[in-house]
Amino acid sequence: MTESIPQWATNLCDPDYAKKIQVKSSNSLASPPGFKAVGTSAKMTKNKESKPVQKQDLSALVVQKAWQIAMQPAKTIPMNMIVSYMSGTSLQIISIMTAVMFVSNPIKSIVNIRRTFKSVSMNPEVKSQVLMAMVMYVVFQVALMAIGVHKLNSMGLIPNTKSDWLFLEQPTAYKEKSFAF
Amino acid sequence: MTRVLSTLLGLAVLASTNLWGVLAIFDDEINSVDWQLSNIGKYECIVPVSIENSNDQLLVLSTLGDKSLLSWIDSTNGQLLDRLPLDFLATDATTSNRNELVLQKEGEVNVVIDPLNGLGNQDSDAAFDYQTYSSCRPDLSLVQSANGKLKVLDNDKQHVVYLQDLPENYSGVTYFKRCEDGSFDIITSTSAGEYQFSKVDNFEVTQSWARDESLTNIKAFAFLSAKDPLSSKIFAKISQEEFMSIPEAYTYRLSQNVQRLKNFIVERNFSVGNIVKDILLGEDDEATLLQKDINFGFLKYLIVATEEGRIVNLDARTGRKLWSFETQLKDISRIEATNSETEILIVAESGDLWHLDISAIEKAPFVLKKSHLPANRHAEPFENGEYIYLGLEDGSKTVFKIHKPRPNEEFYLLDHNETHLSASLYKDYAVENTWKIELDEGEKIIAFAKRDQSPVVSVGNILGNRTVLYKYLYPHLAAYVTGETSTETMTIRIIDTVTGELVHSVVHKDLVDLSSPINLVLGEHWCIYTYFSRAPVPEQKIAVIELYESLTPNERLSNTSSEIDALSNVLKPQVIQKAYIYPEIIKNLALTKTKFGITIRSVALELESGQITYLPKFILNARRAEEALMTADDKREFLNSPYVSAIPISDFTILTHHKHVLSGPSSELVSVATNLESTSIVCSLGHDIFCTRVSPSSQFDKLKPSFQKGQLISTVIGLLLVCFFIRPMVDTKKLKTKWFVKG
């Protein structure tokens, strides 16, 4: 019992079918009833006219966006300062965790800086300005980290004093043996 | 970093001990970690407590130092009931008809005492009843001793009513009391200090007991550790690994461990139940407990020499006598373990030197060698008993080599007596005098201490602001206290034992009572001394001197890179000192010793009241300041507290509980380290022998008996089981999520 293969099945198996379909541009379609295309064409022409201007706007926007991203960590600085001040220098697991987070989060952010600035780094024209924003971003992250480091230091968790390395110091050895009775 | 470590350590300590309060040693610990040999001494006189009524107590007069001691003994079993030290020496005693004990005092009025309670009877008119006989010389007209037999005759001296073999070293009958009905009590003594009581009724011994007083006032002692065959076996195996390559050593150790596991299972007859039971409950049979004590180093042997020349081995955990050995040397001055604790040396003042083999320590020793040294004033073994320093009668000195000497050995030796210190250098098998300090007329050395040579853990003290104050850790130091009776002043001098240079000195002119005990210990970088002074108010004082390289924090002046010659040591310490007031007279002072010196150092104090307590060094700290003068940084310093002049006695640190240790005038307080870093054995050796264990920083390296091993293991096993079941479930869940299958 043979059955002829239906058309849709043939199409399904044909890898080039999708390319063969003729696509009609939506622009060529008639507008729905009641839809008035007022001034569309005029605007289009205007846009076309001021293309360099528009491009400049776009660049400005990108730069603005880049600076917004860069300023984000700066905004959290006062917040972090307050938090780190309020949590005190006592050695508790919570305050140690926050302090460690203050240090580790900026490092993570700096490592992921390309991803953070991906949305604005496509434009080669404003690359230098975006780069500037990126530098500032790093600076602010370092500032954030400094808060964390300061906190760790005030908690005494950074081995930067002589007492932290005292265990490596050896007493003086003397040659003689003496006995007193 | 250090803070994290110290916090973690603190948490661990806190978790394992609940709170500071567990430092205490409570009533239920009596006789579990401590023991006491309560001695009476040589029985001078024995009287029944009561003549009339049938009181089963005997009152014994003996000496404690240069005073007398009254002891009450239960005559039915020989148990010591009570002891009362008197403040005079009674030369004779008798009982009056009114049931009073009359004690004869040399050249003074007799003292009358009620034998029932030991209270002085002031208003007794019959001070001395001459009709009574002296209790110190019992009426022995009915007792005869001949041909190794002791005979007791009847009233007519016709018949022998009692016959007994004389004990070895029999020295006499110290007590004989005959009742109307013919029964009698008799106490015989031996020269070694053993007393045998017999109550004879109707020709038969109805009661008998013996007391051993030979361990009163021991002359010399030594501590020996028990050797652990198991750990030495493991040690031998590990040292074998040193000759192998790393993979070889690894497989070797693995195979050894598998072998041990196999043995463990075979020992338990392959029974899973047995294994689980052993793991959960642990074995608490005697063998395991003994093994534990050996591993922890609690099992020490205290070898003592008695006045009569007997060497006795005591188990330092319980005071049990393991063996005794007669040497007949009456003047033993030192016992020293040597040759990695397989031999002991016994040195006598007359010059006898005996080598005893004690490699099987629980068995009686045998003499390896007897040799003769010159008669000496004092003998000091040093360098693990390989050399003996002898101070001879004529003031000269010599060093005697026990084993083959190693070439080029050089020792600086410092000897002292009451009036002078003299140092010498032992070099090329000869002793050469180096320097000498003669004291002024009227001045006398009261106390002397050499620096404790325990390992140094940290070279500095960490302050609150995380800076370091470097300790003065020069090892060749000694300290001595001199007193001048005419001016009632006392001087403490710390000197360099190599050069004789004075490092520091302190003079006390506050009417020091030189007749009361003055003690001195010299620890790592500090010196603690105690004295009693009458100005401004009579008080017992404890003072501490701390030596630092520099009082400026973070300034290290000593050299670390090279080995230094002590003769060219130019570094002088800077000193801080403080004094404290203590509520009791301190009779003896000792430094607690631990294996690695990490545990907080403490001083054990023997008080005049017969109690033994201890004080951690951080209380006796010279850097404590009044609260008003303390900065925020000072307050942050670990274990630092404001200065308070009076140190109270903490009830929790009384090691003797309710017991009273009668140590006599020439007692010694010693401390020996165990294998557990937290624990140290403290013994008072004098008229009595008392030993206990101290852990000044709480027992941080030992699990408490209440540790819930079972719960812990069952939780771990439970979690493993849960994992075992949950894992496949999670795996299926993950697969289903991948395939967007619900459920």
UniProtKB/TrEMBL annotation, chain A:
Name of this chain's protein: ER membrane protein complex subunit 4
Keyword Transmembrane helix: yes
Positions of transmembrane segments: 82-103, 130-149
This protein's UniProt keywords: Endoplasmic reticulum, Membrane, Transmembrane, Transmembrane helix
GO cellular component: a single term: endoplasmic reticulum membrane
Pfam families: EMC4
Domain of life, per lineage: Eukaryota
Family of the protein in this entry: Belongs to the EMC4 family.
Organism listed in the record: Lachancea meyersii CBS 8951
Membrane topology designation: Multi-pass membrane protein
Cellular localisation: Endoplasmic reticulum membrane
Coiled coil: none
Keyword Transmembrane helix recorded: yes
TrEMBL record, chain B:
Top-level taxon: Eukaryota
GO cellular component, one term: EMC complex
Swiss-Prot/TrEMBL keywords: Endoplasmic reticulum, Glycoprotein, Membrane, Signal, Transmembrane, Transmembrane helix
InterPro entries assigned: EMC1 (IPR026895), EMC1_C (IPR011678), Quinoprotein_ADH-like_sf (IPR011047), WD40/YVTN_repeat-like_dom_sf (IPR015943)
Membrane topology: Single-pass type I membrane protein
Coiled coil feature spans: none
Limits of the ER membrane protein complex subunit 1 C-terminal domain: 524-739
Gene Ontology BP terms: protein folding in endoplasmic reticulum
Transmembrane portions of the chain: 712-730
Signal sequence residues: 1-24
Cell compartment(s), UniProt: Endoplasmic reticulum membrane
Major place of residence: endoplasmic reticulum
Record's subunit section: Component of the ER membrane protein complex (EMC).
Similarity comment: Belongs to the EMC1 family.
Official protein name in the record: ER membrane protein complex subunit 1
Organism of provenance: Lachancea meyersii CBS 8951
Organism classification: Eukaryota, Fungi, Dikarya, Ascomycota, Saccharomycotina
